[in-house]
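Appendix B, record 7
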Amino acid sequence: MIKEEIAIIALAVWLTVITVFMLVAQSVDLEIFFILSLIGFFIIAKLITPKYVRPGYLRYIQYVLVAGILLFVVVVALKVMQILGL
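Structure tokens (predicted):
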């Protein structure tokens, strides 16, 4: 198998594990699911990135990572506002 296929399988397994643990704990929270899936995606994207060449698919992964970071900032800002009562 090539790296991209392994990355897809690893991400699918990670998302399944997160979902199963949330269902077993009976605490399904989409924000926590998003944060944990984003962490998994960051790790997998870092592991499949080659050192000396830049393949075409890497540019699209970077776009997804930037969008994920922006959504993470929004979630954190909303949680802080919720805690402060604003």
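Remarks on this record: The chain has a mean pLDDT of 85. Residues 18 and 24 are 10 Å apart (CA to CA).
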